[in-house]
């Protein structure tokens, strides 16, 4: 699906490559779109979790020598904030244009209620199944975050299960309503056809 145009774009982050999706989101935000990324915990990072965790632990050791407790690096553990930081690195966020673009980007774990009924799109250029080979090891961002201190993965999974159950119930209700409507329509068509045939028989 095309992601062009100045509008709100809701992207489902599941099975998207971390860096590629960040680049696409940054570009769309610079074009003036309001971009929302949901299910950030399902974003994929290439290579094994062991390797990615080692890289993150090296990142945790970065700090300011002047006053590390007050003026230093902020090491986010939440998948949404980790991903938004990656997007920030692809934007000129210290300029007015880049800061405005960053403000137009929202990232969430799971799917909040206000976006549950909205159409969600994917970015084909960042999909794992189209970009990576089957033998390439991958890491789920939620698993990496959990291994470095994030505590919300179980809660997000529980809420996602409830959301999917409600979504399935809505789907079944709509399907039943559509089946009833089709049955009534067929009955109405059959009744009308019968009346026409009876009228023609009387005329003859």
From TrEMBL:
GO molecular-function terms, A-Z: mRNA binding; structural constituent of ribosome
Gene3D superfamilies reported in the protein's UniProt record: Ribosomal protein L13 (3.90.1180.10)
Coiled-coil residues: none
GO cellular component, one term: cytosolic large ribosomal subunit
InterPro entries according to UniProt: Ribosomal_uL13, Ribosomal_uL13_CS, Ribosomal_uL13_euk/arc, Ribosomal_uL13_sf
GO biological process: negative regulation of translation; translation
Domain of life: Eukaryota
Keywords recorded for this protein, A-Z: Ribonucleoprotein, Ribosomal protein
Protein name: Large ribosomal subunit protein uL13
Protein source organism: Dermatophagoides pteronyssinus
Gene coding for it: LOC113796092
């Amino acid at each position: 699906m095309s992601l062009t145009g100045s509008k709100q774009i809701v992207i489902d982050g599941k099975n998207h490559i971390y860096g590629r999706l960040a680049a696409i989101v940054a570009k769309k935000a610079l074009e003036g779109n309001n971009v929302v990324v949901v299910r950030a915990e399902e974003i994929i990072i290439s290579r094994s979790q062991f390797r990615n965790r080692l890289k993150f632990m090296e990142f945790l050791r970065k700090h300011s020598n002047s006053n590390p407790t007050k003026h230093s690096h902020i090491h986010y553990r939440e998948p949404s904030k980790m991903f938004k930081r990656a997007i920030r690195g692809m934007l000129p966020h210290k300029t007015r244009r880049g800061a405005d673009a960053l403000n137009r980007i929202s990232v969430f774990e799971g799917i909040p209620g206000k976006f549950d009924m909205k159409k969600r799109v994917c970015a084909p250029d960042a999909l794992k199944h189209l970009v990576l080979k089957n033998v390439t090891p991958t890491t789920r961002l939620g698993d990496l975050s959990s291994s470095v201190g994030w505590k919300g993965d179980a809660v997000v999974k529980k809420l996602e299960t409830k959301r999917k159950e409600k979504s399935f119930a809505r789907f079944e209700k709509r399907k039943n309503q559509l089946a009833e409507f089709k049955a009534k329509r067929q009955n109405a068509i059959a009744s009308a056809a019968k009346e026409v045939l009876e009228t023609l028989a009387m005329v003859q």
